[in-house]
Amino acid sequence: MGRTVVELFYDVISPYSWLAFEALCRYQHIWNIDLRFRPAFLGGIMQQTGSLTAMRFITAIDMTNPQYLEPLSREFWMRFWSQHEDISQPENILVVARQAGLSAELSQKALEMTSSPPVKDRLKDTTTEALKYGAFGMPAVVAHYDGEPHLFFGSDRLELLGSVIGEKWLGPVPSPKL
Questions:
Q1: Long-range pairs, 124-129, Cβ under 8 A, ≥24
Q2: 137 and 151 in contact (C-beta within 8 Å)?
Q3: Set 14, 17, 73, 88: catalytic member
Q4: Which reactions appear under catalytic activity for this entry (predicted)?
Q5: ω into residue 139 within 30 of 0, thus cis?
Q6: Buried b (16+ CB within 10 A) or exposed e, 28-38
Q7: Could you give the C-alpha distances from 121 to 2, 60, 164, in angstroms and in order?
Q8: CA gyration radius for the chain?
């Protein structure tokens, strides 16, 4: 049996790319694979996957009904990452919104707002603000502590965040306070 071709599309700006790179470099001598490195542009991939409309929709909700941000964002992540379903088309965005508890009227209004200059500008401004703090990828967490902004990149930096702000890290699923 021939060697399996494994292509690693990566961008050095992505730490998750690096993790995959290192692991696959180790396994190329263990598994029967032909590892091929394929440098790609993460920003271009994100633009082509249509997630811009989803982020504009979330921004419209932030501007009109921010109390829905947590369940709405969670539903988008669940649909895209857990269910491997599309989040770029209007009909799919409306399904996500319904699952997050938004009314059909509110969802339709927010969907119409996605192409409006105020929503586009708000998303651009928020992105620019993240860049000013030094963000170079997502997630970027900025803690405003002791009068200074502290940037933390990546979900694996939350323990460090807790240390900097004087809080104890209790793992990814902490027990609720009694």
A1: 126/59
A2: no
A3: 14
A4: RX + glutathione = an S-substituted glutathione + a halide anion + H(+)
A5: yes
A6: beeeeeebeee
A7: 52, 11, 32
A8: 20
Nearest-5° Cα angle at 136, 79 to 173: 50
Strands 4-10 and 33-39, bridge-based pairing: parallel
Residue 177 scores a pLDDT above 80: no
Q: Residue 122 burial by CB count (10 A; 0-12/13-18/19+): exposed, middle or buried?
A: middle
Q: Six-digit token pair at 154?
A: 């990546």
Could you read off the pLDDT of 143-172 as tens digits, one per residue?
Answer: 998 889 999 988 888 889 999 898 988 888
List CB contacts of 103: < 8 A, sequence separation 6 or more: none
Tokens describing residue 13: 């700006």
Active site residue 14: yes
- In this model, does residue 141 exceed pLDDT 70? yes
Identify the CA nearest to 161 among candidates 175, 148, 151, 147: 151
- For residue 102, with 0-12 CB atoms within 10 Å meaning exposed, 13-18 middle and 19 or more buried, which class applies? buried
pTM beyond cutoff 0.85: no
